[in-house]
Queue: 2 jobs
Job 1
Amino acid sequence: VEDIVKANRLWKLLLLAFLPLAGWLGAETVQDAVLTTAPDMPPAIGSRGPVTLKVVLTIEEKNVSILHGVEKDTLYPAWTFNGTAPGPMIRAKEGDTLELHLINPKTSRMAHNIDLHAVSGPGGGAPATLAQPGEEKVARFKLLNPGLFVYHCAAPPVTWHIANGMYGMILVEPKKGLPAVDKEFYVLQSEFYTKNPFGSEGLQEFDNDAAEAEKPTYVVFNGSASAFTAANPLKVKVGDRVRVYFGNAGPNLTASWHIIGVIFEKLWAFGSTAAPLEDVQTVSVPAGGSAIADFKIKVPGNYTFVDHAIFRIQKGALGILHADGDANPEIYPAAGK
Amino acid sequence: MKFALHIFVSILGMLAASLWLSASAGKTQPWPIAFPSDLGPETVDVSRYPSDLQAVYRGVFQKRCVTCHAAARALNSPLLELEPKRIAQLEAAHSPLLKDEKLAKVGPEVWKIYLKQMRQRPACCGGCSAMTDSEMKEIYRFVRYDSVVRKSGRNTLPWIARRKALIKKYAAFRRALEEEKD
């Protein structure tokens, strides 16, 4: 009996010794992705090697608030990834394998899928992930190119699926990573088309004619004209190095993203993480595109970010970033002095 | 008989409007005059309003709205928010409130929509604070009540007369400016 016990122990020790060797030989490491809801970002990845990154997205058809109301909020019957429009931010690294689980509950009225602009191959993954109500689809994609990419549902009709809120973003960090910053935010612009005018309260109805005419009722950041109000701004401190991962889901308009009183010191245009531009005032972001902006806040106060196609602020394209800290009169005098 | 009464009330309204406009004339105007409403009075007598609305008028309306425009613009605007049922009654009665949107713009959500547009202003590009949701709700309660009291019911015809007088006065004001420019 003692011999059997000894042999068992020896076998277990051998197995433990062999595990790192198996890893070195290329056995797969699967990690659950950290998913965040806008405006939060998942933490920077750091210096790890490639992994298989498991991402679970569940379709949810639900009413979302797109504007705070006087008596009732303005609600839109959205189709979402994981219950929010925009859907979660996925953070991966160049060379990772994305293992995507797309769950479409039985209660859904439509088939849904996902087209990731970070994926190389037909449909960006859409045909491989098309899930009928009640189905779960699993597909693996190699992330070959770094950058900030939009993803969206591409099930027919793709127009309605994007107009109804099915979009989000995936950041594929380059192998060497991105420069460290103090604060990171995820901001995505999109449009809603409703039959009633801007500001009407209660549940709204999608207006296909307005969408075809490219005349949105709402142009919003992070799914709501009230996402960043005076009471709920993005918060930073004077001296913080801030980075915004900005996307535009459309479905129609090109964004002219600008922060009043801020110059983008580094700007990775079109979501490419190659050499950044410097000292940029406004960045044009096409529907289905993105940009990454770094800047330092030097003076305390409120900074309003807008789509500088400026009438869109009246449709909701307006948000506030608030900076706390000491005044800096050498750069910016106090009012009236 | 009804027609004669109508004419009599209209004349009374016109007279009241003239007196009201001359009383407000000559006041310092801190904001540019861009609309007929800007030429009207900048205050309203709220002494008979519910006490909570009097407090909103003094504590919120008179402080917040003047951040971006004269209080007169809101107080003399044609906006009148009524329940759909009440609007249907006005339609059935061929009310003059529904004849011309420059005189009275009646709808079930006109103030709600207007106030949300005001909240969407970029707060002087960061120089002053933006309107908060709670301020918007308070101001809504006041302007809705105030406009129902002063623009509908027995005040319908006097209100329409006031708006006509303001529009006329604004046209004269613009003409004078153009002449000055020439």
Job 2
Amino acid sequence: MIRFLCIFLVLVSSSFGSIVSSTLTDHIQANGKRNIREIHIDNLGAVFTYTYQAEDGFDVNAAMTVRATHIVGLVKESEIQSNVTQIIEDTEYKGTWIRITFSYSNLTNLLAELRSRYVSGDLTHDQIMKIAKYVWSLGLTDNQLKALFSVNDAQLPALKTKLSNQAALYDSVGATTGQ
Amino acid sequence: MKKYISIVACLFAWYLMNASAAYNYINNQRVAGATTNGTTWALAYTSITNINNSAAGDTNCVAFCHDETGPAATSFLINPPGTKIAHTMVLCTDTNTEPPTVVTNSAVSRTSTTGQLTFGVGFCDIDGVSFFVGSGVNNATISFANNSAPWGYSLRNLTLGITNGGGSSRVTFGVAGSVRDQSMVLQNVKLRFGTVGQAVVASSCKLLWTDTPDSILLGSIVPTNLFLNSVAGQNSRWELRGVNLSAWTNGTTLLNIGASPGSCGQFKLYNCKLGSGVGMVIGSASGPGAPELWLYNSDSTNTNYRFYKYNANGEESSETTIVKTDGATDGTTPVSRMLTSSTQASFYNPFQSEWFYGWNDTTGTPITLGVNIITDSWTNANNDAWIEIESEDTSGLPLSLFYNTSATNALATGALYATNAATTWSIGAIVNPIKQTLGVTVTPQQKGWWRGRLCIAKTSHTIYLDPMFTNGFSRAYMSGSDGMFNTVTNSGGGGTTTIIGGGSTFSQ
């Protein structure tokens, strides 16, 4: 129950980033081009600089506004992919996943990507075990599992058995390390 | 005797390698027949995946008319058997002779729908055979991505294309987290994308991409971000020379570093054509080891001085309006450098400009090397910024010594540098110019290079730097990790002109 509550808290408290400040500097150059340097700061204080050379007459303010939206999207995707890598590589943290962050994405985003990878057929056997280990360790409810893997009540037991077995296999492999 | 045995052993190994090399023929357009063993054009295999049936050192001849599409959802896995001393070759050739004598560039291999194309472990050289993946709105990826062993691919005169509309489709080089010796060499390689969300994933490998008049296939969509180095464990070392990247223009970006911890690639672009308005880097550096980008003499217009450098601690750009009179120039356009430190810069982790160089012919005589800077409304102290000089000051050894104008440590009270009203600058939009000269005395014991750089510890601080020493040269304007580019003229008028590049010096 505690584990479920923690997950629930993550699900409701995670928030996507937003840009709270966007400024730019505009330096005209000898050939008429302009060195533009945008500085975007998000709600977590992260700074995103963006440098380019604009043609004379180019609307740099409009471009900056578009960029702010773009940054929000890309950092979310970047975080999701980094989290997935932490899970499927797991070379340093041995199942602790201490580097997984939810600054710009949330657990729902991560699980959706993991599910996509899990069924893609592109993963190695150990990567499948690692995903199963992570998902199973979350203690998701039946309803959450059904929604995540698009299975019905009849299919759910088989899914849970599979995830459980794969997670256990991962643990057993880890337990024999060094023997 | 031992020497002769070694020579004989090498010759024998060479003989074995070449004696076993054979030709493997692939042509899906051949007249249908019952037997396909790849030994002749008549018995040619019909799929590119039959590369896997060849042996190390074999040459796979792919017919110029080969145009293969795999069954729906079928993925291609190519595991070339080549070794580091006997690469697998895959060449698009004519079909007139056995073995072929002409290499062309028109063979095509395609997967369909969600089919992936994966190049696995092996050492393989591919010339003229293009690869495309996917169809419809599915995702499909071309990946050079096996992380279980060293591998190396050389690709020449071909296209790597994504023909589907899936926004998560990628061309991927390397594997996140892999630190093995994995190498890509691309020459005249085009890319093809199906939607703006697609990209090239710069994962963990060494990559050299050169001599490419157009990097994107005609009719291709241009992705918003060209290179992605935004996921944990991506440790790329990429170098591009002579690559036309002009398709990426306003609203697109060369390098997306994301915002999450872990990636640490290095990207260097030399003499590349850029699109007008293309952005350099998008994302937020997660620490001092975050991805870095250098741009040497790469631009969208007719310039020969554009420089840019990005890392977690700041940015450096060539600047042609705020410049020192009688400062660095190519003889036509005066050029300075605008350095802006990031919020991550600090005393022990400053933003460092690119090195600039000077040649010294005199030994045993102390000389003061100065560097001129200008700042808007801020008088720099020696804990805000300093210069660092490396000089060959050890007698009898090529052991350099380092000098700087810095405060002794982070706890020391900063001392203001003197202002220098004697220097003249074109100040552009600077409101309150503060001109300073930072100098140290060195005593070279050998002829050789001096090199210097400006370091900025003060966060979010902009300084304009004249990238040349006050002694030694009258002209300098482009320097980089390879040494000074272009022309530098010795001081003294009428002196020898010296061309410096790649660390070498040539008199003319």
